[in-house]
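Quick question, first post here. What does this chain look like in 3D?
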Amino acid sequence: MTLPEPSDGEASMSNEELARGDASGQENPAADERLRVMIVDDHEVWRIGLKQALEADGSTVVVAEAKDGASATAMAAETMPDVVVMDMIMPTVGGAAATRRIIEQLTYAKVLVVSVSGEREDVLDAIKAGASGYILKSEPAQTIADAVHATSRGEPVITAALAGLVLNEFRALAGKEPTEPLLTTTESEILRLVAKGYKYREIAEQRFIAVKTVQNHVQNILGKLHMHTKYELIAYAIRHGLDRAADQPAPQVNPRED
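> Answer (accepted):
Ran it through. Tokens below.
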């Protein structure tokens, strides 16, 4: 079946997606039951293929497509996606710069970079810009679609071949922060579990709390540490040895009682 091809820069919105509201919070004011995704890539055929994979089960709607970072930045403010699938190498404005701009204007949005490049510089530039994950275009379409959903749940996603590169880079960032932030007992424990690679759902089960509560704690920790991404949080935890703590009382980072 031949799908209608949206023109570059055209937003594909359903009629019921109306109310906008202020985009400065952590929740998407335009959210409905479906995951809202924007695809940013200068290859139209690839965009169409990914859109088909994402919308196949009805749980996701592609609200916009853009062929470069400049148009993506403008369209993000109009269409308010939950997740942006971002290429790195594009005309005019590249993926890293577009990622930074979109996250600045839509604080709830998450960016998953999907690129042909596995170069160290590109991967680290994307993560430092605020991307929640980085995978290669060589991955199967369904793997990329699954990664989009994982990104929407706040799970860090990275191609296995690149994971060691990112971890080694963060381990090299050894050094103490000038002042230690004051974390609550619960925040310190959640930080420990995040550092050990637990997913939000697993943390929620261990702590007997809702997944949304875990997400809120992580956001609070990021704010106290003046960080923007989960990768920065993991790097911080590694520097404090929390990734090596196993089945012990939660290490405290200047703890106070909740």
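The longest strand covers residues 60-66.
The first helix runs from residue 44 to 55.
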